[in-house]
Amino acid sequence: xxxxxxxxxxxxxxxxxxxxxxxxxxxxxxxxxxxxxxxxxxxxxxxxxxxxxxxxxxxxxxxxxxxxxxxxxxxxxxxxxxxxxxxxxxxxxxxxxxxxxxxxxxxxxxxxxxxxxxxxxxxxxxxxxxxxxxxxxxxxxxxxxxxxxxxxxxxxxxxxxxxxxxxxxxxxxxxxxxxxxxxxxxxxxxxxxxxxxxxxx
Length: 201
Fold this sequence. Notes:
- By secondary structure, the chain is mainly beta.
- Helix content is 14%, strand content 42%.
- A seven-stranded antiparallel β-sheet has the order 10-9-13-7-8-12-11. The protein has a six-stranded antiparallel barrel with strand order 1-2-5-4-3-6.
């Protein structure tokens, strides 16, 4: 379980392909605090630490299903990935409830500068039957983009906007997103449950 509050944007140092799997090695400031089998969200994708390296590095493995649903398969050495360790049960929920199960990807279609902040527009393609199950955004609702908990504005059936403050631009990989960039999306789990309850009632 995560909150969508990114701790750090870590740099990918190595990528190794093994059949349908990809082993990602990253460098971050808290790598020495990690343990084998620990869960860490990478651009919103929950992955398990499988190896600890030297120089503040560690390795995780993404299977083909994860690569199909996320942007992790597009990563290259030198890219930056948003990281969040799992929530502590005695902590504050500063973002929203995030599972670390990415639903789909979206493409950035517009970036607008507004009084020191930026509005990012993202478009996604979700089948209508998935929309009926809660895979949608709602105005002023929550959405996770590359693991960042954000508030939706200008919600449409196939797109939405989010406002990014300067701090978030600096401390996440949002500062490296451009028009055409592909990001990971996790829709709000509460909306999915409500849609499911309505479907079976």
